[in-house]
Description:
The complex is a heterotetramer, with two copies of chain A and two copies of chain C.
Chain A: E1 2-4, H1 6-20, E2 24-28, H2 44-48, E3 53-55, H3 60-72, E4 76-80, H4 91-98, H5 101-104, E5 114-119, H6 134-138, E6 144-146, H7 151-163, E7 168-173, E8 182-184, E9 197-200, E10 205-209, H8 213-226, E11 231-235, E12 238-240, H9 244-254, E13 257-264, H10 269-280, E14 290-294, H11 302-308, H12 312-324
Parallel strand pairs in A: 2-3, 2-4, 4-5, 5-7, 6-7, 10-11, 10-13, 13-14
Antiparallel strand pairs in A: 1-8, 6-12, 9-11
Chain C: E1 2-12, H1 32-57, H2 71-80, E2 86-88, H3 94-100, H4 104-111, H5 135-149, E3 156-161, H6 168-179, E4 184-190, E5 193-194, E6 197-198, H7 199-202, H8 211-214, E7 218-223, H9 227-242, E8 248-253, H10 272-279, H11 283-294, H12 299-321, H13 330-333, H14 341-352
Parallel strand pairs in C: 1-7, 2-3, 3-4, 4-8, 7-8
Antiparallel strand pairs in C: 5-6
Helix pairs in contact in C: 1-2, 1-3, 1-11, 1-12, 2-3, 2-9, 4-12, 5-6
Amino acid sequence: MAQITLVEAINLALKGEMERDPGVVVLGEDVGVDGGVFRATLGLTERFGPERVIDTPLAEALIAGMAIGMSVEGLKPVAEIQFSGFAYTTIDQILNHAGRMRHRTQGRLSCPMVLRMPCGAGIHAPEHHSESPEAMYAHIPGIRVVYPSSPRRAYGLLLAAIRDPDPVVFLEPTRLYRLFKEEVADSGEAMALDACFTLREGSDVTLVGWGGMIPEALAAADELAEQGVAAEVIDVATLKPLDMETILGSVAKTGRCIVATEAPRTCSFASEIAARLAEEALLNLLAPVQRVTGYDVVVPLPRLEHHYQPGKAQIVAAVKKTLAFA
Amino acid sequence: MAQITLVEAINLALKGEMERDPGVVVLGEDVGVDGGVFRATLGLTERFGPERVIDTPLAEALIAGMAIGMSVEGLKPVAEIQFSGFAYTTIDQILNHAGRMRHRTQGRLSCPMVLRMPCGAGIHAPEHHSESPEAMYAHIPGIRVVYPSSPRRAYGLLLAAIRDPDPVVFLEPTRLYRLFKEEVADSGEAMALDACFTLREGSDVTLVGWGGMIPEALAAADELAEQGVAAEVIDVATLKPLDMETILGSVAKTGRCIVATEAPRTCSFASEIAARLAEEALLNLLAPVQRVTGYDVVVPLPRLEHHYQPGKAQIVAAVKKTLAFA
Amino acid sequence: MNITAKFEVRYLQFLDPHGKALQALPGFAHDPRILVSLYRWMALMRAYDAKAIALQRTGQLGTFASMLGNEAIEAGVGSAMARDDVLLVTYRENGAQLMRGVTLKELFLYWGGDERGSDYAGPRRDFPVCITIAAHATHAVGVAYAMKLRREPRVAVCALGDGATSKGDFYEGLNAAGVWKLPLVFVVANNQWAISVPRAKQTAAHTLAQKAIAAGIEGLQVDGNDVIAVRHAMEQALAKARAGGGPTLIEALAYRLADHTTADDASRYRSPDELAEAWKLEPLVRLRAHLMESGAWDKSKEDALLRECNAQVQAAAQAYLDTPPPAAAQMFDHLYAQLPAALARQRAAALGNE
Amino acid sequence: MNITAKFEVRYLQFLDPHGKALQALPGFAHDPRILVSLYRWMALMRAYDAKAIALQRTGQLGTFASMLGNEAIEAGVGSAMARDDVLLVTYRENGAQLMRGVTLKELFLYWGGDERGSDYAGPRRDFPVCITIAAHATHAVGVAYAMKLRREPRVAVCALGDGATSKGDFYEGLNAAGVWKLPLVFVVANNQWAISVPRAKQTAAHTLAQKAIAAGIEGLQVDGNDVIAVRHAMEQALAKARAGGGPTLIEALAYRLADHTTADDASRYRSPDELAEAWKLEPLVRLRAHLMESGAWDKSKEDALLRECNAQVQAAAQAYLDTPPPAAAQMFDHLYAQLPAALARQRAAALGNE
Ligand SMILES: Cc1ncc(C[n+]2csc(CCOP(=O)(O)OP(=O)(O)O)c2C)c(N)n1
Ligand SMILES: Cc1ncc(C[n+]2csc(CCOP(=O)(O)OP(=O)(O)O)c2C)c(N)n1
Ligand SMILES: [Mg+2]
Ligand SMILES: [Mg+2]
């Protein structure tokens, strides 16, 4: 077992699954010899050849549409969009085709494909390289949305995504690509695709997040612990379909909840969870659910990025507000 | 003053504004001689000529991108996407460019454009012709989202949208295009773009909706009135930026709230309003906010459409549940 | 300035509008059984088409897109493809779909607003109708890539309209097909109109076939009212693709003799004269004249065929009308391979509303 | 088969790699002041480029895309355009932007991650950098349409890369420009690479200029290392567009002599030999040789120029570094013409976090 980063875990999962399943192909811009701009596909061309590790022309709708065609024809494409900011041209394909093929044909055809994309702020990248688009995908019927936040979960969830019989949008937080290492066993074992991860138990407040917000939530929990507040931290790594039971169970215990995302607030996935808690846990709530989110603005260029992105401080502040609620 | 339908009101507003402002141009597929597949642009070519009423090639990203270029260069384009199901290829342009041009250039350039599109279920249309995509647009910073539900509001809000200095996504419920008529004065007067419409006052429960859900909410209010329940009906015709004050004010009075949309539930705009109510009105709420929404499924083809689309019955049932909440 | 590249676009036609051969016919066209079979299919398409419109006009079918005028293209495509090939279509390719084994009842179900109409019992791997124009051009690339990767002697055929050639995904697909030299044939049914927008407003290109030049692949134009030309061009393109020779773009020139769909009124935007001229070129008359001339066809065969087609179409329509509507649960049933727990409650609610 | 259409693609070059004229030079090239001016701009671009990379390497600038190798294209475009024309660019067109009046400080601010860098004090109507590849091809159509509608003698120029020509919006824009015969010039800076993807993997088309054929417009190839060729082709295309003659696609052949950006390492995917060969063709050497040969340039002028450029770039870099960061409120300040009430609370919260 080696200590590896999140992006190395992605690479490990890809390598293993391509080895095990000759139907798995990787496609995208610069995924070949270059190994992807983040090196997620490093070494795959050397090992599996350019026919299975496909440098595509510069055309995202093509990449998504092609993955749909491949998956219908029985391959298991894992497509990379270089940054989620360039994935909006694929929404048409994901919503109008990938998410519908099985239903539209009453089970005759299906799209077992994965659309991977780096996203999230925090790496001082140029414009369009810092958005967190999970809410748009979570609104789309017929697909799964996954957003891991640790090397181990990235490995286990990517394997699950590739093996899943339905289309999966797989969001990868760039800020965590190399932020920390974890021991990851190359076991070939997939994780469940519809269960939250309770990363830390606590009785006073529930911190719910995903992707780049998870290290922030964990750090907030550390800080709160020093102040005598026991926070439970839940990683909603599998956003859609949503395992609401785990969140409800936790809130039944704590009575207070913070939901954190770096996406713009309006119609964010934090709003979805807050709405469900209000609907199903009203009697358990000792205080209003607080959403800690990005502002409803364009993610600024690097000089103001840190003002945009919520983090530990905002989470701790929200917890205090929640605890102060009479 | 004539009694006209919603689609005629759209036409009236377009005609008037093209008359008043030579910078207004209309573009889209079949908007010329054909007058648009719903006849929203009927008679415009005859009156303003094919240079200002532009039949475009079949290319939605072009339509949106072209409108961006025109608006930056000082025109006021009103672009039509034939159905909202074909607008997903424009999201890239709306999110990455229209909504950002002003911010990106610090006010030097801007995109005073309108992207009109019919949407919503209920007319037994083919696939892709029945979705209600408001939540995706509402998640996008820098734009406005408008969704009228009566001829008068369609007229006043479209005028406002055309005159607004920023990009507006203007959603038109096909089911209401010809459902009923209203007296509409061709006054050239625009309505405010960030205020809800309280269509009916009531003290027992607040029914919040937009677009095709409004006639359903009004019908539900009628039915409830017969049963002694006074429902307040709020039309959130201007979804973004959201006038939350009106909704909060109403809920402070009624203590109960139903939010209705025909979009899939997860990450819908109903979730956003429910989350805000939970955050800001918790102490006023006598019962959990109920979301009446579409299911998280693909809108079915016509044979099952009525099973998908929520309506009066679901709203009344939700109200009863709300009233029964101890 | 130097010339650094040169291109030309060829045009293929065998029969003139009166069914007379303009040049030596290709091999298959010497076999009257083949030509008669093509004619029979085209007649069935027309009978189906008329029935569908009648059903729609009487409120028994949803909006329908007639293929009137496209029958030769449909028959050429449908007859040239091999069983294992994959066809990717728009809403106006019901003719080729029929020949591939999609049933009349399935087609009626589809247009009747029932998802079960796309669960084709025959060509299990053919794609369902793609309503979003040209999106399937990229799907076709994926299908053809899979075939090539697995070294299968199969070909993907992507059919689309003239309007579709203006769309980005058409071009992205075309270009990619060239890059990987895929076994993929694009057939553009140029019926001169995209709803109300005439061909000349879609592009300044003189032909649609020349769009292939942008992708570095072969493109050619054929007379789409001449089933012999369409089939011959298809056969050649399919054989080339199967042999590893890469993609082809075929532009088939025809005319949309019907309204765009039953929801359209073409008299709003095009002249009766133009329509009348187009009727003179229509594909059934042409092939019938050719067959009669050669003695392979006569009036009594024609009458029998029409009766046969009508009966077949009538029976399928009845079977469609007799099909009970699906249960409300169908909304959920094939959304995912397995219904996620998160959707179970919604499904139950839907059943409660049934 | 008949031939129904024929096309050819021309190639334009005036100077060989040693600066020798291969054919009679166009009018402007006989004026040494013009050529010297072009050379001075190209030298400034190179100095700017080197400074930007140095700043990035020392953590004082964000990711930067060098234009090394593209200078002749930039100078040709920047010098041929009229003040009132509109330029729409990608991240690699800083050279043309400079010539249009964008300041070095603005460019540094932009790459330093500051929105104020796109508030150009000079060319107020030029577009900011378009990062999403080829999206601006459709914006350019809108701009050119507005110009044409208002009968203005202005032209929109859309610059993009070889990779961009694979994208749907490039094609949609190109095609639409043809339909309306717009005053629009597309300049494809074919630097042979799109990050790690070589030109040959983008398309099977022999030239990128031939993409114009799909849109029914004129396309031509020029030597993008020869500023005389680029400027001449641009002047002709602009004049044609201004006179109502419609759009042109110019493919300028060059080579990306740098990494894709400072975040890239091109040695991972391309050979040093290829790079060395490309250096032999580079644009500054060529023009300098030509100028020296004609006596319009010499070593001391060269030395003075380099000093001048470096000083200019240095001063701008300092001005950039001295610019205090924007206030957090800037996130909100130009989002809408007026801050909506609904955002006021968020703005206040952001200020609280400042
Ligand atoms: C992406 C998209 N945009 C718009 C439409 C609406 N629409 C349906 S058919 C059609 C015209 C298609 O014309 P063409 O490609 O020539 O095919 P034809 O109908 O003539 O067979 C349009 C605009 C659509 N289905 N998809
Ligand atoms: C739509 C989109 N997809 C992907 C990217 C990431 N990306 C940035 S530059 C680039 C390559 C562009 O190549 P080319 O068009 O040849 O321009 P060059 O960089 O060579 O000037 C890619 C893929 C992007 N910016 N936009
Ligand atoms: Mg057509
Ligand atoms: Mg390039």
